[in-house]
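Here is one record:
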Amino acid sequence: MTTNTILLLLLSLLIAGSLSFFQYFYKAKTKSKVNLVLAFLRFLSIFGILLLLINPIMSRKTLETIKTPLPIVVDNSSSIVGLKANETALELYKKLSQNKELQDKFDIQSYQFGNEFEQSEKFDFKGTQTNLDEVAKNLKSIYKNTIFPTVLITDGNQTSGNDFVYSFDANNNVYPMVVGDTTTFLDLKVSQLNVNKYAFQKNKFPVEVFLNYSGNKSITANFSISQGNSVLSKQKVSFSSSKKSIVLSVLLPAEKVGLQVFKATISPKEKEKNTYNNTKNFAVEIIDQKTNIAIVSAINHPDIGAMKRAIESNAQRKVTIVKPNSINSLQDYNVLILYQPTNEFKLVFEKNKLAGINTFIVTGNSTDFNFLNQQQSNLVFKMSSQKEDYLAEFNSQFNLFAIENIGFENFPPLQNPFGTVTTNVSVSKLLSSKIRNIDTNAPLLAFSENQGKRSAFLLGENLWKWRLQSHVDQQSFDKFDVFVDKIIQFLASNDSKKSLVVNHESFYNSGESIEISAQYFNKNYEFDEKARLTISVTNTKTKQTKNYDLLKGNNSFKVNLNGLSAGGYDFSVKELNSKTSHSGHFEILDFDIEKQFVNPDVEKLNQLAVQTQGKLHYPNQVEALIQSLLENENYKAVQKEIVSKNPLIDWVWLLVLIAISLASEWFVRKYNGML
């Protein structure tokens, strides 16, 4: 307490004592023992009230020792078991985490990584992916603005994520502990295979294969691609100590329509330690038609190139860019994208009234809105000459097709003339527009379906900035390109509305996320949130059936089927109330990426150690690592002075005491006839 507080407390004692003395002794007509009791009660009441007003604070200083954190991160992926290093990894973890001297110097915290990064002291080595880049990101987030060392017990074989060497903070030392046999074994593997998901019937599709060799002597092997019992391609390949990799390009015939599964195999004449990585399965869906899209524009704009690239990321789509006055026949196209239409598009609109092709209209600063009002009735534009920037707001109730929010609210604004846009009843808004976070209640991206004809409207130019921003956010164009592809898919189909719509891939790789989504619509074609959807999945070979419930998301129902073994599966999605059902088929390809390795990646781990000024260690050097951490003067415990201030009194109990003393004084005075 401060000196002023002590003086106030002494003054309060004096005031309370003086008033009590004045009331019951100096001014009292008669003096008795009752006066002494009453004076004491009055003293308590007055002193308690003054205490409440002063509210004295007690300050206490304590010293807290803060140790440097030492995260011990263990690779929990199945590749550790494949390299027969799981027991070694556990032994290393125990030696480090249970070392008394390390515990005294550091705040030891244990983590594991595989499919996910999480805090753990138990490890089962069953992870199906290895992502060291995710480890770096999480450690930066957990220990922000802290200097600390990291012990990484791993084989260094990363299967997903960005290159981890430069992901870790260069100011924080990383000490990789390499587990797994580093002895070089003869090993051939199909390391990578590139092929399009789709091919067209009666054409040939390319397959690019990367073959790798680990060994020191010259060898030859046979490489083949087969389908069932038929060998479609076969050739000899040679490797040596100076020729460790080969890239092959093979053309395969697309004969049968539907999902076709192939197998790429390399067969050496010598015995290998690991033969699992000699084979890689892949699948291609053979289709017999292609969607042709025309982007009609009278101007040059970056949006046109961005749309073309996004649409053609799906091999089923082909985009042609044409001028409005150079289209001879619309019958060559399935979808028309009319970019910023003006009076020059008059002939295109007139031809399309007869052709009835679905359109995607994109407006901007060069659009003639009076002309556009004359050519369609879905939207009515009353626009000025002033330019405006429009931000996007996602409508989670949109139900024409399943679409996820890919971060539209964070995308740069689109530019369009300022004005009002009114819609008719048949228009559904996927994105609404905002001006500086003020809702306009106008559409930014809208769709309509009327008498079998479908239309889409994007009210703003600079869509190319959205694609770039999506790449910045996701490190990939994939999500944006899928978003554009869903728009084209909606416009390319004139099928009648279905009450149950199911979305799934034709094939998945083992270890990937296997997700199936579905939407159920009521008779008014509104998304039914109360629907009860189940899925029955049957292995076509074993005939074993599993049943799952689909869980409701924002605008769809989803189920995750992770854990299914490789093979073909038939499935049926049912809505239990209406008995509506949808059947389909998908393949899970046998591919365990964690079984592709015969050695730890010592080179990468050593690069990481050098980059962070740490040091790479082997299992027999664990004592040297412990000693190095103990002797490192950069990691010292810090004593922090903590000043805590607490009230000297508990005001609730003091109020109770004041109330009791006042009540007691009143009863004593009443009992003795002093009132």
Observations:
- The domain at 68-181+599-636 is CATH 3.40.50.410 (Rossmann fold).
- The radius of gyration is 37 Å.
- The chain has a mean pLDDT of 87.
